[in-house]
Design brief:
Blueprint: H1 9-23, H2 27-39, H3 45-59, H4 65-77, H5 97-111, H6 115-127, H7 134-150, H8 154-166, E1 200-205, E2 212-217, H9 225-242, H10 255-267, H11 271-288, H12 293-309, H13 313-330, H14 339-344, H15 347-360, H16 364-371, H17 382-400, H18 433-452, H19 491-511, H20 515-526, H21 533-549, H22 553-559, H23 570-574, H24 583-600, H25 604-611, H26 617-639
Antiparallel strand pairs: 1-2
Helix pairs in contact: 1-2, 2-3, 3-4, 4-5, 5-6, 5-7, 6-7, 7-8, 7-9, 8-9, 9-10, 10-11, 11-12, 12-13, 13-15, 15-16, 16-17, 17-18, 17-19, 18-19, 19-20, 19-21, 20-21, 21-22, 21-24, 22-24, 24-25, 24-26, 25-26
Length: about 650
């Protein structure tokens, strides 16, 4: 943003000429005029330095954004010299270099995907939003709303919109929007299908087995207040859609509004209409010749999101791969690309989505390599660490399959087996059980920390009317956005994720021979308040096995009594992606492990009786091996 400052008539005219030359992209002439102002002894040195830094940035083709950032940081750190007038921080009729510099720094960090830093830089301006002139207030509000959406702070974004509407009158009411009612919250994570045109890009996220795409619209430092107002209205609609507010979206022929309509279809679980809407955007832009790499990236990614949601994993993976190809065309060399182009890069989020698809396709090596990209940026996401652990476990099990029948009798006495593993460094990111243990420790630590600070929203009866929301600071509103780039999660989703982490951690610990940790994790799992039947079964199995390996067969029997299986929900077992597809299979596995416990206690007759009841193929080979082992033991006892 290039700022004009009021001074004496001659200096003001020179600055107006410089501003005109800047708008005409005559940057050399603009710099000459700024130099004349400086030689005339213009007192607003900070404003001249700011404008010169911005002009030099545009003169280099908007490539030297780090140089611009350094200049802006120096501008904020410099103190006025003795006798030099202090430039006020508030913009009221007079432009402030420090205010605009702070805004520009936030824009740079935003385009570099450093959203947290951008929010920190913008906070002093947002807290004084009412004191800023209208144009600057609109710019700051637009960027703040973009940052809140980019960081999945959807509740705060909604509250901020109410503040802008009822306190500052910067936005009007959205058609059909009602703050007091919302669409029913789905039990699974949702995804948006909004694609942006030449002025935007998409941010794809993948919660659990579903991805989410959220448009990030352009926030250029030179955007005028009128254009900024239209973006603010578009962001207002997007915020309502993401918060599942009933809002009427009237298409006007632009790809942005059409994409919002597709996003609304997706949230309403009308996946077919969402896909048709995206394809219509692609066809219309192709005919008009307005297809850009970022538009192709968004459409391909969001089509992949839709197919991922309906479990067409191979098709989803193909769309994600196409999205990566388009994204690479756009950002082939990030070191030599413009700031805006850098802001359009979405390979990190798309790789997250592709990793999820690869997990479902049982291609763990490819999934693991995909997850290595987003974990560098979203290292505080416990779900991402858990997904990496899943890939490690799946790869280990795949390597184990060819030799699964070549084991000793002793190693066949338990359901999961325990064998020595080579010394692998947990610091090396490779799909091994050792690295899986590290991933699960990270996931568990983060999840417990986030659960302790989980924010419970007020009940509808306690919610203030939007017009009265100015009585409460919108900044006090919180979001449980612990799994960025995924959407905020519910308490139930948090507890389900913790259960999955405990189960996986117990399994990996058993494989690595850490029976104490395996038992501890299994006990934590069984103490869960909302434990699913499938996890209840796993908790008892892992606890029983850990106790057997610790020579505590008596305690293990308490976890392996087959009676508890009868109380399990068969549907919960049948819908899981695992081998135990029925209560009969679960009964046979539990009985087999109980037979192993009897054998370890030298109660061979009880063990043989249980083995005689095993009929399911899932345990037939192991049961035969155990039966032979028991016969040998009985024969040896008889000889003595």
């Amino acid at each position: 943003m290039f700022r004009k400052v009021l001074g004496d008539d001659e200096n003001y005219n020179l600055l107006c000429q410089a501003h005109e030359q800047f708008n005409n992209r005559e940057y050399d002439r603009c710099l000459e005029l700024l130099q004349q102002l400086e030689t005339k002894g213009e007192s607003s040195g900070l404003i001249l330095r700011h404008n010169r830094a911005v002009v030099n940035y545009y003169k280099t083709g908007c490539l030297e954004h780090q140089t611009l950032l350094n200049e802006l940081e120096k501008l904020g750190n410099d103190q006025p010299a003795p006798g030099e007038p202090t430039v006020p921080l508030a913009l009221k009729n007079v432009g402030s270099a420090l205010t605009v510099a702070r805004y520009n720094k936030a824009v740079i960090y935003f385009h570099r995907h450093m959203y947290g830093t951008a929010l920190d830089r913008l906070t002093p301006l947002v807290t004084r939003l009412e004191a800023l002139e209208k144009q600057m207030a609109a710019l700051v509000a637009t960027l703040q709303l973009q940052l809140l959406l980019a960081t999945n702070q959807l509740n705060r974004a909604e509250a901020f919109l109410d503040y802008l509407q009822y306190k500052l009158n910067l936005v009007a009411s959205a058609p059909g929007a009602s703050a007091s009612s919302s669409l029913e919250e789905p039990t699974t994570a949702t995804a948006s299908t909004a694609a942006a045109a030449a002025s935007g890009a998409a941010s794809a996220t993948a919660p659990t087995a579903v991805a989410s795409a959220t448009p990030i619209l352009d926030s250029s430092v030179t955007r005028a207040a009128g254009e900024n107002g239209s973006i603010l209205r578009l962001l207002q609609l997007l915020t309502h859609v993401l918060n599942r507010k009933p809002v009427v979206i009237t298409e006007d022929g632009t790809p942005e509004i059409a994409a919002l309509k597709a996003q609304q279809y997706y949230i309403m679980k009308d996946f077919q209409m969402a896909a048709k809407q995206l394809m219509r955007i692609n066809d219309d832009c192709t005919q008009a010749g307005t297809v850009t790499p970022q538009l192709s990236t968004c459409i391909a990614n969001n089509m992949g999101v839709i197919h991922l949601r309906v479990r067409h994993y191979a098709i989803a993976a193909k769309f994600f791969q196409n999205a990566l190809r388009f994204d690479q065309q756009l950002t082939s060399n990030l070191r030599q690309c413009s700031l805006q182009t850098m802001g359009l890069a979405r390979s990190c989020e798309i790789m997250y989505n592709l990793g999820i698809a690869m997990l479902h396709l049982r291609r763990p090596k490819e999934a693991f390599q995909c997850f290595l990209v987003p974990v560098k940026q979203y290292h505080s996401n416990p779900r991402l660490w858990y997904r990496m652990a899943e890939a490690c476990i799946m790869e280990h099990e795949a390597q184990k399959l060819p030799g699964k029948d070549r084991h000793t009798i002793d190693s066949g006495l338990n359901s999961t087996g325990s064998k020595p593993y080579g010394a692998h460094s947990t610091a090396v990111p490779e799909p091994t059980l050792e690295f899986a243990a590290l991933c699960l420790r990270n996931a568990l630590t983060l999840s417990l920390q986030y659960k302790a600070s989980f924010y419970m929203a007020a009940s509808p009866d306690e919610t203030l009317d939007p017009k009265d929301s100015s009585q409460q600071l919108w900044s006090q509103t919180q979001d449980n956005n612990f799994c960025n780039p995924s959407k905020p999660i519910s308490l139930e989703s948090m507890e389900n994720m913790l259960d999955a982490i405990y189960a996986a951690h117990s399994f990996v610990s058993l494989r690595l021979g850490d029976h104490v940790t395996a038992l501890e994790m299994a006990k934590h799992l069984l103490q869960s308040e909302r434990l699913s039947d499938a996890h209840k079964l796993l908790g008892h199995m892992y606890a029983g096995e850990a106790l057997m390996m610790m020579d505590k067969s008596g305690e293990a029997r308490d976890h392996l009594e087959p009676t508890f299986v009868n109380s399990l929900n068969a549907l919960d077992l049948e819908t899981r992606d695992w081998q135990l597809k029925s209560l009969d299979a679960a009964q046979n596995v539990v009985r087999y492990n109980l037979a192993v416990t009897f054998a370890l206690q030298n109660d061979f007759q009880a063990a043989k009786s249980l083995l005689g009841t095993l009929t399911h193929p899932i345990v037939s080979k192991k049961a035969l091996t155990l039966h032979r082992y028991i016969e040998l033991k009985i024969s040896a006892t008889a000889l003595h």
